[in-house]
Amino acid sequence: MKANVLKFALIVGATSLFTAAVQAAEQPPQYLGSCGACHAIEGLGAPVTGNAAQWEPRLAKGMEALVSSVKNGLGIMPAGGMCNTCSDDDYKALITYMSTPQ
To answer: Could you say which DSSP state residue 90 is in?
Structure first.
């Protein structure tokens, strides 16, 4: 019985570690140092990462319009969205990540 409990605990632990690693891999590397500063926290005026309802009207504008807004700045978001090294493809990946329900 104890061996089965131990096996179960090891499987659950390994699954949790694998899930965390997969989730971390899906997050663009620039997110925490740039977009995450404002989009990870409710109440700052930016659409929150993973909140599909907040992102829906923005996504309706199209990806090119969103990338343009990031590159030029919008509201209090500075030009480049705090990612001075991001390419258009990086911005697209970041927008996709943030607009996808978490």
So the answer is: H
Is 35 in contact with 81 (CB distance < 8 Å)? yes
10-53 confidence digits (pLDDT tens): 333 433 333 343 344 489 999 999 999 999 999 999 999 999 99
Task: Give the pTM.
Answer: 0.74
Dig out the tokens for 32 from the structure. Answer: 């925490």
With b meaning 16 or more CB within 10 Å and e meaning fewer, what string describes 22-42?
eeeeebbebbeebbbebbeee
What are the structural domain ranges in the chain? 29-99
Question: What does CATH list as the number for 29-99?
Answer: 1.10.760.10
Query: What sign has the CA pseudo-torsion 69, 72, 75, 78?
Result: positive
Residues in the chain: 102
